[in-house]
Design a protein that fits this description.
This protein is α/β, with parallel strands linked by helices. The protein has one domain: Rossmann fold (3-Layer(aba) Sandwich), CATH 3.40.50. It contains 8 helices and 7 strands, in the order βαβαβαβαβαβαααβ. The chain has a 7-stranded parallel sheet with strand order 3-2-1-4-5-6-7, with helices on both faces.
Length: 256
């Protein structure tokens, strides 16, 4: 799985999964465009990975805004000249609340980042890869794309949407030598799950975690590194022949 001098864009790169994924690619010599709304977090990633100036770009970006998505794509092409892999990872959890209490603003926020962000990334990166006649795309969805969960309707809806978009993108790009797949984590031991736990039961997040873990056959959350390993594999030529699929990494949660 040689990524030396390959160009990889990772959105949501300041978060747990994004950072772990960036580390894997950096260790293999990839050139990285790291995208996130949290610029300080991106700078911390660059510092932790000890990246050389010629090997990375960081771009503070609201992925729900198409013009900002186009900016990170253009910056990548201007510096590196191509895009070999795209990890379409940026996403937010929203808040835990019933459908009948969900505000229009919250719905717009979650769907904007989780659906439009994925869509706009594909819209502007697929043409680059089509011209190259090569490229691998991984859309980070969720086990939430397969199941329902009370209080999480905007997030659930967004991840179902990502899986539908994933199939369409794979079909539209396959003849150009591009593969498009989705990676679907269950609960992961990171900030997002901590936020969901606390939102579900303020002050009792640990109890919520225990309940989640009881529902996972292997009895624990996945790690950021485990999810990154799957993203890395699906981005590599070791997974050639696979496109239009959605791989769960959920400890067996959705198998029940």
């Amino acid at each position: 799985m040689d990524f030396k001098d390959k160009v990889v864009i990772i959105t949501g790169a300041a978060g747990g999964i994004g950072k772990a994924t960036a580390k894997l690619f950096a260790n293999e010599g990839a050139k990285l465009t790291l995208v996130d709304l949290n610029k300080e977090g991106l700078e911390e990633v660059v510092s932790e990975l000890n990246l050389s100036d010629e090997d990375y770009i960081i771009k503070e970006t609201d992925v729900s805004k198409e013009e900002q998505v186009k900016e990170y794509v253009d910056l990548t092409l201007n510096k590196f000249g191509r895009i070999d892999a795209f990890v379409n990872n940026a996403g937010i959890e929203g808040k835990v609340m019933p459908i009948v209490e969900t505000s229009d603003a919250l719905l717009d926020l979650v769907l904007g980042v989780n659906v439009k962000g994925v869509y706009f990334g594909l819209k502007h990166i697929m043409p680059v890869m089509m011209e190259q006649k090569s490229g691998n795309i991984v859309n980070v969805a969720s086990v939430a794309g397969f199941i329902g969960s009370p209080g999480m309707a905007p997030y659930i809806a967004s991840k179902h949407a990502v899986l539908g978009i994933n199939k369409c993108a794979a079909l539209e790009s396959a003849s150009f030598g591009i593969r498009v797949n989705a990676v679907c984590p269950g609960p992961v031991d990171n900030r997002m799950m901590e936020s969901i736990q606390e939102s579900a039961a303020p002050g009792h997040g640990d109890e919520v975690r225990k309940q989640f873990e009881r529902d996972i056959p292997i009895g624990r959350y996945s790690t950021n590194e485990e999810v990154a390993n799957l993203i890395y594999y699906m981005s590599s030529d070791k997974s050639s022949g696979i496109t239009g699929t959605a791989y769960r990494i959920d400890g067996g949660m959705a198998a029940k």
